Please model this.
Amino acid sequence: MLASAPVGNRRAQPPAVSAIPLRIMDVFEITGGARLCGEVRATGAKNSVLKLMAAALLATGVTTLREVPDILDVTYMAELLRRLGCLVERDIPARTLTIDVPEVPSHQADYDLVRKLRASINVLGPLLARCGEAHVALPGGDNIGSRGLDMHIDGLERLGATVRSEHGFLIATRSARLTGAHVWLDFPSVGATENLLMASVLAEGITVIDNAAREPEIVDICTMLQSMGAQIDGVGSSTLTITGVEVLNPTDHTTVPDRLVAGTWAVAAVMTAGDVTIRNAHAAHLAIVLDKLTETGAHIDVLPDGFRVQAEARPRSVDIVTLPYPGFPTDLQPHFIALNSIAEGAAMVTENLFEARFRFVNEMVRLGADVRTDGHHALVRGRESLSGAPVEAADIRAGAGLVLAGLVASGTTTIYEPHHIDRGYEGFLDDLTRCGAAVIRRSVSDQD
Ligand code: EPU
Model:
């Protein structure tokens, strides 16, 4: 017979396992000290392909994109396009993506995707031009700062759109075809230039975008739009003149190589006194970055399809000031803080684009770096070595900067939240391993 259970004033039994659920997560674990040597190939640019995918919305039918990187942001953007009614197929080994756009796409981009991918704001311009309205959830801030949309909105209003914010959505409408206008951007914003380009190619008459961004990714989208039948003059300059056309055709376009991936490898080679050849890269897109690396003492050979970076000794420190292209890219600023933290001498790093990018400095300090920030300046005093520690990646580029620091730190550096790094760097760990680094991805629980 079973004993009857005691009743009444029962004392609660302690749970057999902890009441706090275990969270299993990936980390990157790097044992520093290897000299990187070998050859890598840059993928197509993340910051271009996402916009090219949005640009496909401008024409009914099948657009093919090539050199599409295998990164999570492409998966999110593909999902967004599917929700807008497109049929999206991806051949990852072949690096191609086809987007079959219906005659009338849907016009709503919801928060669940927009919050994962800020670049989804780029569907605003093409949806407005194609559908007459666009409802795009407001992306909000992110880990690198507040990131306004005022220039996107002002520019679209100049073209005749009405834009309002309601229930967390940015709602843009037009009662007739958009009309060409002269738009002066307060700042050469990449996102605003792209949205205005995509809205104006189907507008009536001539649009001039002055103080436009000139990044290689802007040239890439202009080239794709031209191949769809758009008329754009001044490509690569800060004044873009667009003569609107009535319809555009689908196209087949190859994404420009990722200058930030190529630049990351170049800095890695210098920091580890290595010898790395980067293929599928345009040295001209990294002119100021490669010039700074030469100042550190590295040797750079430009090749027909890329460049080779060789370094033999501890780098010399270099000052940098981030600015819109062709200035020094903000997306390589954390990499140069990492480089300067082990360089000979002291350097001043000035960040002019994203106020919160220096948050990453706290993680560098955990690795033993001597960095002090004051507003948008960081003074980095080089040390002979860093020492491995657990650190957290707050965004893609901060994560890449920490990988570089981990490569030269003594002992083990564990990088938490490496999914940020995966967003921008396809097969990063495999390539690092092939070049001699001791780096693994492993799963840990938050009670390890
Ligand atoms: N800004 C405004 N108002 C606007 C637009 C921009 O105030 O209407 C401000 C932003 O807040 C920011 C600055 O202007 O301070 C630059 O913004 P921009 O529009 O040029 O940048 P973005 O389009 O939001 C893209 C890249 C970023 C890269 C910047 C600058 C993509 C998806 N993102 O952002 O890349 O840092 O240009 O080159 O293309 C990354 O890849 O890690 C990344 C953050």
Observations:
- DSSP finds 14 helices and 24 strands in the chain.
